[in-house]
Amino acid sequence: MLCLVRDIQDFRSGVGVTGSKQTLFYAEVTDEMKASEGGGQPEEGELIEVVEIPLQDSLNFAFDETFPKTMGVIFSFMWFQTNIAPKLLEK
């Protein structure tokens, strides 16, 4: 199966401190594409938490201040709700 990766937006985080450039990508994947449970490669020092959020809860999660997140994450949820979610809800 082929997964198309879409370049969404470049932005700067930590402006005034480090100003690192980050790029936001979007890809649609299915359970059939899953190769492992996820979580990164611990032997390489990776610790990646896999979080699945139901579509109807995603915008609430973005604005819930009890979960720490960057502005890039908040922007990504808003982008998704504007550009992808309406098409999914039509199906």
TrEMBL record:
Transmembrane segments: none annotated. Belongs to the Nudix hydrolase family. This is Nudix hydrolase 14. InterPro entries: NUDIX_hydrolase-like_dom_sf (IPR015797). It comes from Phrynosoma platyrhinos (Desert horned lizard). The keyword Hydrolase applies. Keywords: Hydrolase.
